[in-house]
Amino acid sequence: MELYDRIEKYLTAKLLPFWFQRVAAPEGGFTTYFDRHGRPTGQTDKTLIQQTRSLFMLSHAQRYGYGGGKARDLLSSGIDWFLKHFRDPQHDGWYWIVDREGRPVSTDKILYGQSFVIYSLSEYALATQDPRGRQMAEHTFELVQKYAADTANGGYREMFLADWQPRPAGAYGGDRKSFDVHMHLMEAYTALYELSGAEIHRRKLLEVIEVLWTRMFNPATCTGIAQFSLDFAPLPAIRFKTVWGADRDNEGEPRPLDNTSYGHNIEFLWLFLHALEVLGEPVDAYRDRLARLARHTLRYGVDPVHGGVFVEGPHDGPARDQQKEFWQQAESLVGLLDAYLLTGERAFWEAFLKVFGFVWEHMINHEVGEWFALLARDGTVLWDYLGHAWKNNYHTTRSMIQTLRRLKKIEQQGMVP
After folding, report:
1. Which domain holds residue 305?
2. Which residues in the chain show pLDDT less than 50?
3. What is the pLDDT of residue 245?
4. Edge-to-edge strands, sheet with 46-47
5. What Cα–Cα distance (Å) separates residue 308 from each residue in 15, 163, 317, 322, 336?
């Protein structure tokens, strides 16, 4: 398949080399601060997301046969620095930000970050068989159960001070739960259960899946709701003091309550299908809901004019934000292929080609290999950097690896139109 060959060549000759050549910070750990030319921007603080996603990227490449000796070497040095400098020796858990040398800058315990520790260290252990990966992934899982599990309402609280006491309400996030964090806990627990096979990890994965499906979706449209009170009353999404993305249009007023993220919805679809596969559970009970979710993305999220996927909009209406961020495109490529495999509906294959065409023509900086951060609807580059504290290597590399796996499956099943 020409498309398969083109993506594999891009992944192996451009995208992975971009990161293999740059991701190791001279002082230890990883760096992801690069301008449109792939040159360092001069920023040096290290975030928990930046470090764990770099560990994941290298481990994922290694696990699926793309890493070679370079990924192994980078993992070997990076894991030591990470374990030494990001773990809180006083209160346990993992710092949110440290400086260039590893001194704590933000010591709060953010569940989004703790989930990526579980995810990345599980993937690291699966790729390398280093026992430290499983040990620390399981230990972090236990910390999350101890401090974050909401035994009164279900699900998990998400924002904590350094000593694991809940942060204040409102913009500090102490009184909110989110679809985003619970989806990434599902992702993390899936990897951990794949690694361990332990019953407790299976049970907690099933529990977070139940919370997502029964408390965090709009039942009429099967689309995700962004934020909730602790007892799962839907709330207009606000911008928190602690962020893990570049939330450009949410500085003041909350988003409308009637709002959903196309990227999160389609990302959830493929992560959930992967969770079912790891659990050994049949998809039949969820097939209709997943198909409805995917059709919503197809109807409102995929740009019929320029290709690509919009940011967000109402649960049952056209997109409100028609800009295009790198991560929605990355996750949609995998999710649309899974929707095609799930339903056999050719519209999902055609939507995949539309999104991929937009990514190939506009999102990828082919000169150096990585993707731009944000584009206008027509593909005009709005944010041209290739990496920063939150925009780094996990979405793009994982997308290409997982897209290749699905294209091969589609070809094997004789589903190429």
Report:
1. 10-412
2. 249-250
3. 67
4. 46-47, 97-98, 104-106
5. 20, 42, 18, 10, 12
